[in-house]
């Protein structure tokens, strides 16, 4: 093996050959973020939302050692049902590929793959961040450092309240990552549209967000942008309702000594159980909302680049 094992789906290859907008999607949200069968239904729905928005979806994963940029429907279904799939971040991508393994890509690994495949816009639900209690655990997601070094704009619904959102914003500021709230001043809090925290930046249109991304490139700045898109009002869960649920999930994680990579998937699953599925309904709505905005940004970027 002398070259990088990377393949594009036929749909992605055709889109890029004709200069069409492409939006990257991660796969950890499928394997570790949502239960079967909703994970598969949502993955397909989000791809369709991007197509309806005039762009081409590229769901990214490692299958048998190959970095796949865009998955065929059968591949997506197999991955969504598989058990024990690795969760790949910057640190484990190469070893997984070198050993012919299969793994789902987190925000960090998806950014790396998207950049290799010349994709500049990526939609997801929420990014990893600084966990509560990080002053003891040192648990800070590699997603934050990836945003500082890989030039991909990530469209997410802000940071979840399972994280220490203040500290997450501080690290992003230190790392020089633009954090842009879309159409509002406050930083979106994933399941809730707003929060008590003001976002560092605000832009109101896909065109402005695309221009800001382009301008960073012209300035020669490394890294991407975090585009924080609030969940639609009809789908939000008030933070007052979630606060006790999150506290309970966190106490359970401590009681079971959950650590490292397992923390985020554990908390998401526990919150899903404790809200009797409501957290998932909101999660689905916000991911789809992010996919629609990402398609607009990718198209605006294509127009700028033309
Ligand atoms: N946030 C979600 N759902 C997810 C994740 C985050 O709402 O599935 C996943 C993403 O793939 C993100 C990863 O990159 O969790 C962060 O994991 P960690 O905190 O271990 O870095
Ligand atoms: Mn972590």
TrEMBL record:
The answer, when asked if Hydrolase is one of the entry's keywords, is yes
Q: Which residues does the Swiss-Prot or TrEMBL record annotate as the active site?
A: 26 (proton donor), 160 (nucleophile)
What does the Swiss-Prot or TrEMBL cofactor note state? Answer: Binds 1 Mn(2+) ion per subunit.
Query: GO molecular-function annotation terms?
Result: hydrolase activity, acting on glycosyl bonds; metal ion binding; pseudouridylate synthase activity
Enzyme superclass (EC): lyase
Keywords from the named record:
Glycosidase, Hydrolase, Lyase, Manganese, Metal-binding
Q: Which of this chain's residues are annotated to bind substrate?
A: 87, 107, 141-143
Query: Would the keyword Manganese turn up in this protein's UniProt record?
Result: yes
Catalyses which reaction?
D-ribose 5-phosphate + uracil = psi-UMP + H2O
Q: What are its GO biological-process terms?
A: nucleobase catabolic process
EC number(s) from the headed UniProt entry: 4.2.1.70
Q: Which SUPFAM superfamilies match?
A: Indigoidine synthase A-like
GO cellular component terms attached to this protein's record: cytoplasm
N-terminal signal peptide: none
Which annotated residues bind Mn(2+)? 139
Task: Enumerate the cofactors the protein uses.
Answer: Mn(2+)
| Record-stated family | Belongs to the pseudouridine-5'-phosphate glycosidase family.
Q: What does this protein do?
A: Catalyzes the reversible cleavage of pseudouridine 5'-phosphate (PsiMP) to ribose 5-phosphate and uracil. Functions biologically in the cleavage direction, as part of a pseudouridine degradation pathway.
Subunit-level organization: Homotrimer.
- Database matches in HAMAP family: PsiMP_glycosidase
Q: What name has this protein been given in UniProt?
A: Pseudouridine-5'-phosphate glycosidase
Organism of derivation = Roseobacter ponti
Q: Which gene encodes it?
A: psuG
């Amino acid at each position: 093996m002398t070259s990088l094992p990377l393949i594009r789906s036929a749909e992605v290859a055709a889109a890029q050959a004709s200069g069409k907008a492409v939006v990257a999607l991660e796969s950890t949200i499928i394997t570790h973020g949502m239960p079967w069968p909703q994970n598969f239904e949502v993955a397909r729905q989000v791809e369709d939302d991007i197509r309806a928005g005039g762009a081409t979806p590229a769901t990214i994963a490692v299958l048998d050692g190959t970095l796949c940029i865009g998955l065929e429907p059968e591949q997506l279904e197999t991955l969504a049902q598989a058990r024990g799939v690795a969760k790949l971040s910057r640190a484990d991508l190469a070893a997984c590929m070198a050993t012919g393994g299969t793994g789902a890509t987190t925000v960090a690994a998806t950014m790396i793959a998207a950049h290799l495949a010349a994709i500049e816009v990526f939609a997801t639900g929420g990014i990893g961040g600084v966990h509560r209690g990080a002053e003891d655990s040192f648990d800070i997601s590699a997603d934050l450092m990836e945003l500082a070094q890989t030039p991909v704009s990530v469209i997410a619904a802000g940071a979840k309240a399972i994280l220490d959102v203040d500290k997450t914003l501080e690290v992003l500021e230190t790392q020089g990552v633009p954090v842009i709230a879309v159409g509002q001043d406050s930083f979106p809090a994933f399941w809730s549209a707003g929060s008590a925290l003001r976002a560092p930046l605000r832009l109101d249109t896909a065109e402005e967000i695309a221009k800001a991304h382009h301008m960073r490139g012209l300035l020669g700045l490394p890294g991407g942008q975090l585009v924080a898109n609030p969940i639609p009002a009809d789908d939000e869960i008030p933070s007052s309702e979630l606060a006790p649920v999150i506290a309970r999930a966190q106490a359970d994680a401590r009681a079971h000594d959950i650590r490292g990579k397992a923390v985020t998937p554990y908390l998401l699953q526990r919150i899903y159980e404790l809200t009797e599925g409501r957290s998932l309904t909101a999660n689905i709505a916000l991911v789809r909302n992010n996919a629609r905005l990402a398609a607009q940004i990718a198209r605006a970027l294509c127009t700028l680049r033309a």
